[in-house]
Amino acid sequence: MTASNTQIQMRKGLLEFCILHIIARGEVYASDMIDELTEAKMIVVEGTLYPLLNRLKTASLVSYKWVESDSGPPRKYYSITEDGTEFLQILDKTWDSLVQSTQLITSKR
Amino acid sequence: MTASNTQIQMRKGLLEFCILHIIARGEVYASDMIDELTEAKMIVVEGTLYPLLNRLKTASLVSYKWVESDSGPPRKYYSITEDGTEFLQILDKTWDSLVQSTQLITSKR
DNA sequence: CCAAGAAACTGGTATAGCAAGGTAGCTTCT
DNA sequence: AGAAGCTACCTTGCTATACCAGTTTCTTGG
User: Fold this and answer.
1) Which end of chain B, N or C, is surrounded by fewer C-beta atoms within 10 Å?
2) In tens digits, what is the pLDDT along chain A, a chain of 109 residues?
3) b/e map of A41-75 (b: 16 or more CB within 10 Å)?
4) Over the stretch B47-86, which tens digit does the pLDDT of each residue have?
5) For A31-40, b where at least 16 C-beta lie within 10 A, e where not — what string?
6) B13, A6: Cβ pair inside 8 Å?
7) What residues of chain B have any CB closer than 8 angstroms to a CB in chain A?
8) Domain map of chain B by residue range?
9) Which CATH class name applies to A3-107?
10) A·B CB contacts under 8 A
11) Is the pTM of this model over 0.70?
12) Is A102 within 8 Å of B6 when comparing Cβ atoms?
């Protein structure tokens, strides 16, 4: 049981939430997401992101379209669906509640 | 991929953090923890808690002592160790950073 | 003694992140 | 044209953890 392991566990599940938010703001492809997450100090690697995106797609929470690139191979640009928007609203509430619960427990003494 | 499943995933990893905090405040046994977590709407069941406590014990982050009960079988009263206190400080920082990162991502538009 | 309850524990299942490797298309340089 | 390198997407094997549904152990009360 190491700190880094626990940190990973704490991040778990938040990724899906964050990525849905990023996609909800407009069309993006994988590298865009990684850049933004990294900037916010929420580290992600490709091997984590791609399966996650596929899960979101399978669940019809996001959709994508292929777009040719000026430099390099084509990209999958993701956008959020109606179902995804609804789902995201639930997650927003869950997150708020979770922060509140944690705050309640960790700030007591 | 259901909302409830995602909610579970978001809660994952926070449990360890919350439980360490509860133990850090003073000696408690399993039912105390469950009561407090339930009160804070952080639902946990016994089958989750006991393995977690054993992990913390194995990692020397907490220790326990048996205490006779007036009514019923003896209880394991847990308290935090020095290592556990250090660990908890790291987790506090991790949590703050995580909240901040998530806030950054989810509040943008 | 036996039933009931409390406390601690266990095995099986599912999910998710990570590390590492693989495939294919495009660009650049010789 | 050919080779090298980059970019983007995808897959596999591993590990860790929570949940569910029991099981065991101990104590008390009828």
Assistant:
1) C
2) 788 899 999 999 899 999 999 999 999 999 999 999 999 999 899 999 999 999 999 999 999 999 998 888 999 999 999 999 999 999 999 999 999 999 999 998 7
3) ebebeeeebeebbeebbeeebbebeeeeeeeeeeb
4) 999 999 999 999 999 999 999 888 889 999 999 999 999 9
5) ebbbebbeeb
6) yes
7) 1, 3, 6-14, 16-18, 21-22, 25, 36-37, 40-42, 55-56, 58-59, 61, 87, 90-92, 94-95, 97-102, 104-106, 108-109
8) 3-107
9) mainly alpha
10) 123
11) yes
12) no
Q: Name the nucleotide nearest B13; use CA and C1'.
A: D17
Q: Which residues contact B59 (CB under 8 A, 6 or more apart)?
A: A1, B83
Give me the amino acid identity at A93: K
